[in-house]
Request: fold
Amino acid sequence: MLGMRIYNGWRQLLYYLPLIFFLPYLFSVLELHHSSSIDKPTNKPNKKFDHLVLGPAAGQGLPDRLQCEGIKALNETHFSSVSNTPSLREHTSIITVFTIYNTSVDTSSSVESMPQSNVIILTDPASEFSIHRDRVAMLPIPGEYARDKLMLQRIRSYIVFLEKKLEERSWRQDDVHNYIFTDSDMAVIDDLGQIFYQYSTFHIALTFRNNKDQPLNSGFIAVKGTREGILKAKFFLQEVLQLYISKYMKASKMLGDQLALAWFVKSCPSFDSRRFSRRQAFLDNIHGTSVLFLPCALYNWTPPEGAGQFHGMPLDVKVIHFKGSRKRLMLEAWNFYNSSASPGISDMLCLVLMSGRTKYDF
Reply:
């Protein structure tokens, strides 16, 4: 669990139900908010709140969706069991890009993470922030970290990271280090190592949604940790980077990487983009790289923001992405989970699901 603090008594539970929060840990000392409180729905829709306002939870009465009574879950989410892991020599590391603007920070918080996993933060060498916790490491990578170039730099940082791993690793078949690149505003609520066991032949994994212009979300990219997997993933990202620079620099601040990803994938003559309309994982060969496409509905799920946009939370969601104004909600969810007398991930997810009717701006 990546967060502001942790109780020792939870560790046995978290071994089976891994939970990683990125933003609450990285931003906790920046004091993004002063307090958390929960209000009942209000009859004054024009009033802006700086705290949670609970509304109806989407998906109530629908099969295979989380059912809530208040902030109490009536059914349980489906979590993977680490007992299904065939080899303890295969590890998964979570990697994210994070930098600090116009301030310094000492992230002196406690850290737990998925079993057999590490957290690696790729950052600007000029950022004045440090971490002193087990299984969490910082890797400074020189580059352009200005706000309008950050998405471009993120892909460059991923490529540099993969190049370093190719140089550092001694390649043994029984000792595989897999990598998952994520945005820093995501919560991992299940064991993502299962991806690498269930789909053993892919080189790189992307998440997709039924969106004509932006079918791929770059917030989650998994790389198989074999030499071939890293080489192919590096080639894939290099091609995306060149497309980004040549075609989408006008969108360099936001979305350029996603537009370049979609262009590269769709440029493969044999690719059938109609598969993006189905919520089923599939494999395809994209310009010589074996790509696993995972549905955003499970691996990159976004909390609702406005009535009618979502039909509840599937019980087997693996990753929650707190995009845009939802980032504040991520902090509130962590505080709720961390302060509960009997912490339960499902109860925390009910809070998330019921809080989607109000924007949470920084």
About this structure: Residues 295 and 315 are 14 Å apart (CA to CA). The first strand starts at residue 20 and ends at 21.
